[in-house]
Fold this sequence. Notes:
Blueprint: E1 5-9, H1 15-24, E2 28-32, H2 36-43, H3 54-63, E3 67-70, E4 78-81, H4 100-109, E5 118-121, H5 129-140, E6 157-160, H6 170-176, E7 179-183, H7 186-196, E8 204-208, H8 209-240, H9 244-251, H10 274-281, H11 287-311, E9 318-322, H12 337-348, E10 352-356, H13 365-369, E11 373-374, H14 377-383, E12 386-389, H15 394-397, H16 403-406, E13 409-412
Parallel strand pairs: 1-2, 1-4, 2-3, 4-5, 5-6, 7-8, 9-10, 9-12, 10-11, 12-13
Antiparallel strand pairs: 6-7
Helix pairs in contact: 1-3, 4-5, 8-10, 8-11, 10-11, 11-12
Amino acid sequence: MSFEKVSVIGLGYIGLPTAAIIASRGMSVIGVEVNQKAVDTINAGKIHIVEPDLDIVVRSVVSTGNLRAVTTAEPADVFILAVPTPFIHSNDDSHHPDLHYIEEAAKTIAPVLEKGNLIILESTSPVGTTEKLADWLAEARPDLSFPQNSGDAADINIAHCPERVLPGHVLQELVSNDRVIGGISKSCSDKAVTFYATFVRGECIVTNARTAEMAKLTENSFRDVNIAFANELSVICDKLKINVWELIKLANRHPRVNILNPGPGVGGHCIAVDPWFIVDSCPEEANLIKQARLTNDHKHFYVIEQITRAADEFKRPVIACLGLAFKADIDDLRESPALQIVEQLAKNKIGQLIAVEPNLRSLPEHLLRMGVEFTHLEHALEIANVVVVLVDHKEFKTAADKTHFAATMVIDTRGII
């Protein structure tokens, strides 16, 4: 196959780094993004997200003409779909996956498809989504043949290859990590492997589409279950007046024990979301996976109770919340327990609320409307009488004067103090 032109649908936290890496290998890359501001930013050689070194790569490939952002699809040899897969918003506690972004992406590329094209779904998806993608495309383009599980030859090749990168290390891991590639047919898998071999140094492992979808969900569910154990352990240790951080260090000295660190919950668009896709597919069987999700989702309510009790010790509580992102040293707020905690504190109006997030230039508008102040670390520590560490950003871990922490009531959900 010829891979001279690649189209990446969705230029967010995964799509933009993927487009930049492929473009850096000399291929012509068209990035399709509905956000006009993001398109203009990228075409100016800049980035609209926080990811180490991504700005350098984007500036380079835009200047050479290898990367171009647009709002409408254009013909290409390969189409990579990197669009969100959130939940359907409902009034109950259900967590049904919302696949309309993938369906819209299918409708976007359908008019420009040509025989021999390769379509790769990288969005983390419930089992069976890649087959649905083929059905949506077939409905939009009845003049083309699409692959079936029987393995018959088709005009269009479709495969699923879930992204498996860690925010903050995306550029490195896009190249070095192994890739699980599942085509709807063997021919689709083979063509996808050939494509990824152009920029991936890790091993490309072939399976079928359903197994590839389940592999990503399994990886993140495994981590979620282990984090739930650590979070539950931290609550138990609070009740028994035991330092959970010391306990975990001691337990981890056992050669076959590796307990993860607890926190205020679990965030991001992977670990906080993917296990629910398994639960939604098999609600009667996924009992442990569901309980881990419930345990981790409840942790931020426990933190709010701790903060409320601390604030009650002061006539005029001033609460400094350190961090809003879902993990350290990034700006991603998706499913962030830190953000959820600050939002709930603002709703409860238990005192003056200050937020410190070194990776954001300003607070989200809804927090400002709720009266949350935005400031830098030094000022927050000077005026706060309750300090809540919600994210272990490097700026917080290396704070020059830890005496400010000692002079206040500290709730440290990350174990940095």
